[in-house]
């Protein structure tokens, strides 16, 4: 990741991080301590039962506020130390969940004196809810799978089933995508629609991730049709120079990273000697089809394809005696 990308990621982390609530939690913590002191010294001459109840409530409020204060402070530490948006997002989600669980334990501990009865009641309730809420529970467990196995993260472009989009939120129960393509678009451009699907979907069907963190590129290809009389060596030279003009040696370096990543696997690495990859084949009609295969960031696929087509066609037209197009308009 270059310096500009790091700065952009840090900016996104700051944008995601809302104003800290540490001051509010500190105020609530002080209020809980004051209530506990009032109940302990019985300043208002309350009855014994009322004083005991107030003491329990004050204890719960104090410890709950302390727990949320610790979560808020931990969130600030994560904000300062983690500059990757997806990691920051997942850690904050985990911290919030830990805070909620801790508060529930505190409430049960102080408001229920009979631990055995509370445990039995909680067990029975959990059993009933387990049957009634199988899908939400599967989605919640799916959130843990997404968190630790990371089939996708916030910011990734993914496809699962017929759903395609950029991940904008991973909740405890569902995932939200910013759709691209879809029923109304023929290109990889955002449609403006949001898609929500349960996290349990990761157990049921494959997830295609276009944004693998080790190599966030995909292969794309563009076909060009030329006449049999064209100089194929000249065509190949024009395409390579056009690609070099638009992208320089950046993708050559990225392809070397891919080869290094695949070297530790049984997968054969692609040959980077002649990149971009250009192939010729005879089309069913009366022309030669030229296929250019190249690497591109998934979210820039449409823009890069457009720029490359415009550049290559302009260069083809500059040498009409060497690059000829089929005379038929049927193509």
TrEMBL record:
Name all Mechanosensitive ion channel MscS domain ranges: 136-211
Q: Where in the numbering of this chain does the Mechanosensitive ion channel transmembrane helices 2/3 domain appear?
A: 99-134
**One GO CC term of this entry?**
membrane
A GO molecular function term, named singly, is: mechanosensitive monoatomic ion channel activity
Q: What is its main location?
A: membrane
Q: Would the keyword Transmembrane be found if you checked this record's keyword annotation?
A: yes
Q: Does the keyword Acetylation apply?
A: no
Places the protein is found: Membrane
Q: Which InterPro entries match?
A: LSM_dom_sf, MS_channel_1st, MscS_beta-dom_sf, MscS_channel_2nd
Transmembrane portions of the chain: 22-45, 57-78, 90-111, 117-148
Q: Which Gene3D superfamilies match?
A: 2.30.30.60
Q: Which domain of life is it from?
A: Bacteria
Q: Which UniProt keywords apply?
A: Membrane, Transmembrane, Transmembrane helix
* UniProt protein name: Mechanosensitive ion channel family protein
Organism from which the protein derives: Deminuibacter soli
């Amino acid at each position: 990741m270059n310096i500009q990308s790091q700065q952009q990621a840090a900016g996104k982390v700051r944008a995601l991080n809302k104003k800290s609530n540490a001051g509010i939690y500190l105020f609530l913590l002080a209020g809980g301590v004051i209530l506990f002191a009032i109940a302990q010294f019985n300043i208002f001459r309350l009855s014994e039962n009322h004083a005991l109840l107030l003491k329990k409530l004050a204890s719960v409020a104090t410890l709950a506020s302390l727990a949320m204060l610790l979560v808020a402070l931990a969130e600030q530490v994560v904000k300062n130390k983690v500059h990757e948006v997806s990691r920051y997002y997942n850690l904050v989600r985990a911290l919030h969940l830990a805070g909620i669980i801790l508060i529930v334990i505190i409430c049960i501990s102080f408001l229920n004196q009979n631990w055995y009865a509370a445990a039995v009641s909680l067990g029975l309730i959990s059993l009933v809810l387990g049957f009634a809420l199988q899908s939400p529970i599967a989605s919640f467990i799916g959130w843990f799978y997404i968190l630790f196995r990371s089939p996708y993260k916030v910011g990734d472009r993914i496809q699962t089933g017929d759903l395609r989009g950029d991940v904008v939120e991973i909740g405890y129960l569902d995932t939200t995508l910013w759709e691209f393509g879809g029923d109304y678009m023929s290109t990889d451009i955002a449609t403006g629609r949001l898609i929500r699907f349960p996290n349990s979907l990761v157990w049921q069907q494959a997830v295609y991730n276009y944004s693998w963190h080790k190599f966030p590129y995909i292969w794309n290809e563009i076909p060009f049709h030329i006449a049999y009389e064209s100089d194929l060596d000249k065509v190949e030279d024009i395409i390579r120079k056009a690609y070099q003009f638009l992208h320089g040696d950046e993708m050559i370096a990225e392809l070397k990273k891919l080869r290094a990543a695949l070297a530790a696997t049984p997968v054969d690495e692609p040959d980077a000697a002649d990149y971009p990859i250009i192939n010729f084949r005879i089309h069913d009609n009366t022309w030669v089809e030229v296929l250019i295969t190249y690497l591109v960031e998934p979210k820039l696929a449409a823009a890069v394809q457009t720029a490359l087509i415009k550049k290559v066609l302009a260069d083809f037209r500059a040498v009409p005696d060497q690059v000829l197009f089929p005379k038929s308009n049927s193509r």
